[in-house]
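Input chain follows. Return structure tokens only.
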Amino acid sequence: MHIHNHWLTEITHCLSPNFNLRPDEQAISLCVIHCISLPPQHFGGDYIDQLFCNRLNPADHPYFETIYQLKVSAHLLIKRTGDIVQYVGFNHRAWHAGLSAYQGRENCNDFSIGIELEGTETTDYTVVQYQQLAAVIKLLLTHYPRLQKNQIVGHSDIAPLRKTDPGLSFSWTTLFEYLG
């Protein structure tokens, strides 16, 4: 796996329309870890792809009636199997952080890369997810020099009044052990 033209190679690409240009393409200096499961507490399937590509059918699950009109995306999803899907090129602004701030800077989407882990705040993540997350972050650290290890945060760190992900089930210690 490598980064070529702001896209990971050797993974699945599923292009989301939910992105726009960054104010400064060189400003990538934050990595935000999220979690998602659709429907809630269920894993597998392609509902996350459908959500990020504006194709989620509200009739498929009662919960979808509350979210199917959202225009959201992340740069990447790491499934519980370790498979990776990229939705938005790293040079573009994916719509993952919402109302957010980090170290006095607002609108974290402007300068961050958003990575979703298939999971919940209360379910342990898989070993292969940590391994793949660390491999991706190592590539990002090399490719985007303004991004540093101490700038890897959870969604809860940049939107603490709104978000709790990746949750208590996420082991920052495990991630940093894999990062070395």
